[in-house]
Amino acid sequence: MVFKSPYADVAIPEVGVAQMVYQHALEYGDKPAMIDGHTGRTLTYAQLYGGVRRVAGNLAKRGLRKGEVVGIYSPNLPEYPLAYHGVALAGGMVTTANPLYTADELAYQLRDSGAKFLITVGPLLEKAIPAAQQAGVQEVFVIGEGEGATPFTALLADAEPPEVALNPAEDLVVLPYSSGTTGLPKGVMLTHRNLVANMVQTLASGVNLQRDERVIGVLPFYHIYGMLVILNLCLYKGMTIVTMARFDLEQFLKILQDYQITRANIVPPIILALAKHPIVDNYDLSHLKIIMSGAAPLSAELAQACAERLGCIVLQGYGLTETSPVTHVNPEDPARIKLGSAGVPIANTECAIVSLETGNPLGVREEGEIWIRGPQVMKGYLNNPDATAQTLTPDGWLRTGDVGYVDEDGYFYIVDRVKEMIKYKGLQIAPAELEAVLLTHPAVADAAVIPSPDPEAGEVPKAFVVLKGAATAEELMDYVSARVAPFKKIRRIEFVEQIPKSPSGKILRRMLVQQERERAS
C-alpha cells in the first residue's frame, strides 16, 4: 500500500540552488541576513548576495569548473553561505565537513569527493592543511586569520559570476557525507533539483515561514538539516539567521533572548535542556513561537513538557541526508500536531511500509521499514554503486533503514532502526568505523560497537571487546578518542569472551542491541 501526501503536488522550478535562494535578495536589501550571535557582526541581504556573486566569480578565475568540488570545513558563521552558495553559483559542488573531524577523517572525505579547494577557518588550519595535503587539494582558503592559507577575502574581490549552463535534474550541487544504513561515510549525491524541490515541498506542507522571523542558526550548516532548512529556506524567505559557532546552553539562551528569536530548529537533546534545566527560567524566551525538532526521535512527553514550559509550539519532522532531507513534518497548526509523530509526508512524496520478513507492503498500524519516493531522493552514493543499489530500488524507492508505522490519519511514527547507525545527539556514528579503530589496538582481538540508550544524548557508542592482551576500558576509550572526532568517542566498554556472529562472519549487532535495551528497561 502506498501512502501519499495529503498536500497537493507543487511545481518544481527548473533553476539552480543559488538562483532559487537569492531570487528576492535585492528586494530585502539592507535587512540583516546573517548575524554572528557572539559578536553581532552582520551581513545584509545586499552584502550577502553581492558576496556570493563575487565568490563564484573568483573561484571560476582560480580554475573552478562546473562539477568540481570545494570542501567547507567550518563552524556556523555569517560567511558560511558566502562560500556555500558561491560554489553553487559557480556550478561547483560543495562537500561540507564536520569541524570536529580529525585531520584523517577530513582527508578521507576530501580525497573521496575529489575536492579541488578547501575553505576553512583559522582555528582549524592545523587539521585542515595536513588533510588538504593528504588529499591533493590545490588551495586552502581561510576565513579570518591563519598561516599557510589564502585569505578568504581574496574571493571577495570584484568579479562577475561565470555563465554556467545548468541541468538542475542532473547536475550535483552538494555532497554531504552520510553513513547511510551501514559502513563508512559515503558521499550523498544531491542535485540542484533535489534541494530546490525540497524547499518548495516543505513550504507547501504546513511549514509557514514568515519574512519578519528571526531563526537561530545553531544546527550545523554542514549537516543537511541546517543546510536546507536554515541556510536555504530561511534565506529564500528573507528571514534573519543568528549563528552560533558551537552549542553552549547559556549562550544559546542569551541569543534566544537578546535577538528575540522567533523560531528554533533544534534536536531532542537541546529540547531536553529547554524542558528540564533550571537555568532556562533566568531568560525571557517569550518571543519564541515555534520549535521544530529533527535528526532523532522526539518523545511526546518531552515535546509536551517543553511546549508547556516555554508556551510555544513544539513539533517534529523527519528526513535523511539521502532525501535532501525533509520527507515528513507536522503542520504548524497546533490542532493538527500529533506529539511523538514524525508527521505526514510532504507534498510530492510517497511512502510505503515494507515487511522486514517478506518485503511485502504493509497497511495502517503495521510496523515495517519506511520507504520513500519523491523528487528530493538522492541520485545515489558517490563512487559506490553497490551501496546505491542496496538503498535505491529500480523504481525509485529509497529504503530508509528506519522502522515505523502509519496511523489512520496518515501520520508516521519512527520506532526503531534496521540500519546500524548510532544517533548521538542527532549526529550519525557508524559502528564499523569505531570497530576498525579498536581493532588496530594490539590488545584487541575482536570488537563490536552498538548504540547504548542514554537519557541525555539519545544513544552513545558502546563497545563489546574481546581482549588478547592487557588493556583497561579507560585505555581503549582514550585510544579511540585520540583518533576520531569527539562526538564519536566510545563512552562505554564491556569485555566479553566472544562477539556473536552469523555463519558468514557478520556481527549479530541486533542481538547485542536487544540485550542492551533489556538491561536498560
SSE layout and pairings?
Layout: E1 2-4, H1 17-21, H2 25-28, E2 32-36, E3 42-44, H3 45-61, E4 69-73, H4 80-89, E5 93-97, H5 103-113, E6 115-121, H6 125-135, E7 139-143, E8 150-151, E9 172-174, E10 177-178, E11 186-191, H7 192-203, E12 214-217, H8 224-236, E13 240-243, H9 249-258, E14 263-266, H10 268-276, E15 290-293, H11 300-310, E16 313-319, E17 326-329, E18 344-345, E19 350-354, E20 368-373, E21 380-381, H12 385-391, E22 398-406, E23 412-417, E24 422-424, E25 427-429, H13 431-438, E26 444-454, E27 458-467, H14 473-481, E28 492-495, H15 509-520
Parallel strand pairs: 2-13, 4-5, 4-6, 6-7, 7-8, 12-13, 12-14, 14-15, 15-16, 27-28
Antiparallel strand pairs: 1-19, 2-3, 9-11, 10-11, 11-21, 16-17, 17-18, 19-20, 20-22, 22-23, 24-25, 26-27
Helix pairs in contact: 3-4, 5-6, 10-11
Structural class: alpha/beta
CATH level 1 class label of the domain at 34-165:
Alpha Beta
Which parts are unreliable, with pLDDT below 50 for 5 consecutive residues or more?
Answer: none
As a whole number of angstroms, the C-alpha radius of gyration is 22 Å
Major sheet summary line: 9 strands, mixed
In whole angstroms, the N-to-C terminal distance is 34 Å
Beta-strand percent range: 25-35%
Question: How many E-type strands?
Answer: 28
Q: Helicity range of the residues? A: 25-40%
CATH T-level fold name of the domain at 34-165: Rossmann fold
Q: Whole-number average pLDDT?
A: 94
How many helix segments? 15
